[in-house]
Write a structure and sequence with these properties.
It is built from 13 helices and 11 strands. The protein has 2 domains: 2-174, Rossmann fold, CATH 3.40.50.1970; 177-368, Dehydroquinate synthase-like - alpha domain (Dehydroquinate synthase-like, alpha domain), CATH 1.20.1090.10. The chain is globular. Helix 5 packs parallel to helix 6. By secondary structure, it is an alpha/beta fold. The protein has helices spanning 26-30, 45-61, 80-92, 107-119, 133-139, 177-194, 196-211, 214-234, 249-258, 267-284, 292-303, 319-326, 356-368; strands at 3-7, 14-19, 38-44, 65-71, 100-105, 125-130, 144-149, 152-159, 164-168, 339-342, 348-351. Strand 5 (100-105), helix 4 (107-119) and strand 6 form a beta-alpha-beta unit. Bound molecules: glycine. The site of glycine has 5 residues, from loops. Glycine (GLY) binds next to loops.
Length: 370
């Protein structure tokens, strides 16, 4: 059984399928896209050990040949050296313009392989098979692809929509609890930015979802993907509304930079903390009621998620330095920082109109409470 969310982007439209056991049906799902029975799979060592044999057997079951490139696992893979290696391997495999490349893994693999597909022979189709919660609800959908530069994360890339996304809910069962909870940062973001009823649902069902309830996981992924698809269709290349998806990310990127993009703070953990800070900033600016940030943090705490600067097990720089790091965010326009703030749960908006001192004081207070 799987659900389908359609992403209606004209000649770049595609389906996101969500359900348990999809990797084991990869052959049947991909076959309609192929002009010849052959695909190239790019994955990482951790995911290969868990899922590559399943995917290759499913492809072989439909008579589809596959070759696989296994990259090292981890964020360090998402740079020029492994990107060059991937593109050259795909060329060695004689992947042609009408062929399909498969990205099997989490956000690092999806972003890197999507970018490789975007530039290979000026663009070949690719299929996302996201295996982490974060990749299923965010990075595999919407066509943002790319790699990191020494100057910052995701600074090199292209918009290139996948031809199909297969989000196998069963694969989430192989995640370490910390990685699953980090993905929950992106899930809760959707409720906070645009769907109060989904946030209510998460308050009720989040703990069961974290404990492994497959139906709850499938619903959370589906609702997140529906929301992402709706926003991407309104604003594919982030001229406006798509920036809403960056709720919590301005704070998050500064915290990730301050912790050296290391496992002291996973991206999804930074998003959760960033969302809590964005709601606190909104309350301080009188945009939403004072009790709203506490409700946001209460849900995250009940899930066992990180909610505040105090939860980051690392030295952090002072508030001024964190603010500087925010200034290097991709969302800076004409040198002005843009924030996603909220008038309440489910009512986020984009603004450049945030007094610098309000942000500085918030960071000072949160650092002082560590
Ligand atoms: N991850 C934010 C976006 O896709 O726009």
């Amino acid at each position: 059984m799987s659900d389908t969310v359609h992403v209606p982007l004209g000649d770049r439209a595609y389906d996101v399928r969500i359900g348990a056991g999809l990797l084991g049906r990869a052959g049947a799902e991909i076959a309609p896209l192929l002009h010849r029975p052959r695909v190239a799979i790019v994955t990482d060592a951790n995911v290969a050990a868990l899922h590559l044999a399943t995917v290759r057997a499913a492809l072989a079951g439909e008579g589809i040949e596959s070759e696989a490139l296994i990259l090292p696992a981890g964020e360090a893979t998402k740079g020029w050296p492994q990107f060059t290696r991937t593109v050259e391997w795909l060329l060695e495999q004689r992947i042609e313009r009408r062929d399909v490349v498969v990205a099997l893994g989490g956000g690092v693999i999806g972003d890197l392989v999507g970018f490789a597909a975007a530039v290979l022979r000026r663009g070949v189709r690719f299929v996302q098979m996201p295996t982490s919660l974060l990749a299923q609800v965010d990075s595999s959908v919407g066509g943002k692809t790319g790699i990191n530069a020494p100057q910052g994360k995701n600074l090199i890339g292209a918009f290139h929509q996948p031809a199909l996304v297969l989000a196998d809910i069963g694969a989430l069962g192989t995640l370490a609890p910390r990685d699953f909870l980090a993905g929950c940062g992106e899930v809760v973001k959707y409720g906070l930015l645009g769907d109060a009823a989904f946030f209510d649902w998460l308050e009720q069902n989040g703990p069961a979802m974290a404990a492994g309830d497959l139906e709850a996981r499938a619903y959370a992924v589906r609702r997140s993907v529906e929301m992402k698809a709706e926003i991407v269709v309104r604003d594919e290349t982030e001229q406006g509304d798509r920036a809403l998806l960056n709720l919590g990310h301005t704070f998050c990127h500064a915290l990730e930079a301050a912790t050296g993009y290391s496992d002291r703070l996973l991206h999804g953990e930074g998003v959760a903390i960033g969302c809590a800070l964005a709601f606190e900033l909104s309350a301080r600016l009188g945009l939403c009621a004072q009790e709203v940030p506490s409700r946001v943090r209460a849900h995250m705490s009940a899930m066992g998620m990180k909610t505040d600067l105090a939860d980051i097990p690392a030295e952090l720089p002072d508030a001024g330095t964190l603010l500087e790091l925010m200034g290097q965010d991709k969302k800076v326009v004409d040198g002005q920082l843009r924030f996603i703030l909220a008038r309440g749960i489910g009512s986020a908006f984009v603004t450049a109109d945030v007094p610098r001192d309000a942000v500085l004081n918030l960071l000072k207070d949160r650092l002082a409470s560590r």
